[in-house]
Sequence to fold (384 residues):
Amino acid sequence: MRILHLVKTSDGASWAERQMRELVNIGYDIHAVLPGKGKLIDKYIKDKIKIHFLDLNVSIKESYKIPFLVSKLKKLIKEIKPDIIHSHFVITTLIARVALRNERIPLLFQVPGPLHLENPIISRLEIFTSRKYDFWCGSSNWIKDKYIKLGICRSRVFYSPYVPDESRFVPMNKILARTKLGFDANIKLIGMIAYFYPPRVFLGHTRGIKGHEDFIDAIYLCLKKRKDIKAVIVGGPYKKKGVRYMEKLKKYALEKCGENIIFLGERNDIPLLLACLDIAVVPSISENYGGTGEALLMEIPTIATSVGGIPEIIKPGETGFIVPPRSPKSICNQILNILENEEMAKKIASQARKYVLANYNLKNAAKQISQLYDYIIRYCNYYH
Fold:
């Protein structure tokens, strides 16, 4: 079966690339439409994914480009002749729907996050543009259930998660990891790993969607109680607005916490960094699973907010610790609780790795998508 995947970035969305790699490994002819520049291009080639260059990532200001992109995508579709088109972003889905308006080729939108579903106008618009040959796959059950509540028939909406590469995230000795990266063995190191996305004004947000400000405020509160705490923030900015937002956050962190928060930028040694941590924090105000899976695989006690799909993977007292969104005080209290009950936290972290390995592994996720492809073909053949 030939599948054409649509991705709006060649720098990020490694979760989509991993999925394609696994589908190639089980025998699918996988093609991907990507922007022409990006650090993941070589990985796509190495993993035998056939790539086609077309930048489908347009902003509202660049909407004049859409007719050109639709024309180019139509031409690609005719050349490739895919059995199914599999889109991973809202913008790539909307452009594909226009290109496929008079076609019977099925389109699967695997929804990576809930952000657009949190705006009633955008969510309704996304559904309004769909065709009878369109299908949805929530990458969390929260997303799947949201589409059903919005009126999508259960026979056209499914669940399959994007999952981390479990072969990369294997627990390692904290002291050795800290020695390699130069961290003091005696400090309590709290970490946050996320891209810098500025506040989404159209959703009424005053803080970034990943909750960086809440993390900084929580560390500020912790430092009032303990002096042995240090924090690291890992990740790079998303586009130019992200650069300005990141610089603003650096100033804010310096004002609040002095030198006790270190910004490490983008890194390619995330497993090693996670191994250095005493606690990982995912303080998002809008999220699917975020970086919870990677931290849990590394057996790092993890605190995350109760938004989106996070409560599906972080189960309080079993796999991690849940706090309300936008609550630095709750994050602080949970950090202090973990540091004062380290044996309890280690036991939960050990259980968490087993849970993720059993429920969020690459082979199972690829099998789910394979079964979904088969279902979509049968469904469309029946209704032809």
The longest helix spans residues 362-383.
